[in-house]
Amino acid sequence: MAATNDSQTIEEATTGMESAPDQKTRRYDRQLRLWAKSGQAALESTHILVLSSSSTSTSVLKNLVLPGIGQFTILDRTITSPSDAGNNFFLEGQDSVGKPRAEEAVRLLLELNDGVKGHSIVNKDVKEVLGTEDGVEWLKGTFSLVIAHNLEKGALDQLSDVLWKDAKSPPLVVIRSAGFLAEVFIQFHEHAVIDSHLDTTPSLRIDKPFPALLKHSLEIDFENMDVTDHGHVPYVYILVRVLEEWKQAHGGNPPKTSDEKKEFKAIISKMRKKADEENFEEAEAQAFKCWSSTVVPYDIKSLFGAENVAPHTKPFHLLLKALEVYTTTVEPYTLPLSATLPDMKASTGQYVEIQRLYKDRAVEERDTFKAILDKIIAEQGEDASLIDDEVIDDFVKNSHILRLLKGKKWGALDQDKEKLAEAAASEESSKQLGIHLALSALSSLQAKRQEAEFAPTLEELTAEAKAILPEGVELPDEHFDNAIGEAARSPTADLPNTAAFLGGVVAQETIKMITKQYVPIDGYCTIDLVETWSGVL
Amino acid sequence: MAAAASQDWPARYFHIDQILDKPGPRTDPAFAAGDGVKDFLRTKAKILVIGAGGLGCEILANLALTGFKDIHVIDMDTIDISNLNRQFLFRQKDVGKPKATVAAEFIMKRVPGVVVTPYFGKIQDKDEDYYMQFNLVICGLDSVEARRWINATLVNMVDPENPESLKPLIDGGTEGFRGQARVILPTFTSCYECSLDMLNKQTQFPICTIANTPRLPEHCIEWASVLEWPRVFGDKKLDNDDPNDIDWLYKTALKRAREFRIEGVTWSLTQGVVKNIIPAIASTNAIIAAACCNEAFKIATSSAAFLNNYFMLIGTDGVYSYTFEHEKRQECPVCGGEALDLTISPDTTLEQLIETLTERQDIQIKKPSLSTPIQQLYLQAPPQLEAATRANLEKKVSELVSAGGEVTVTATTLPFSLSLRISYTT
Question: Which interval of the chain is the signal sequence (chain A) (predicted)?
Answer without folding.
Answer: none
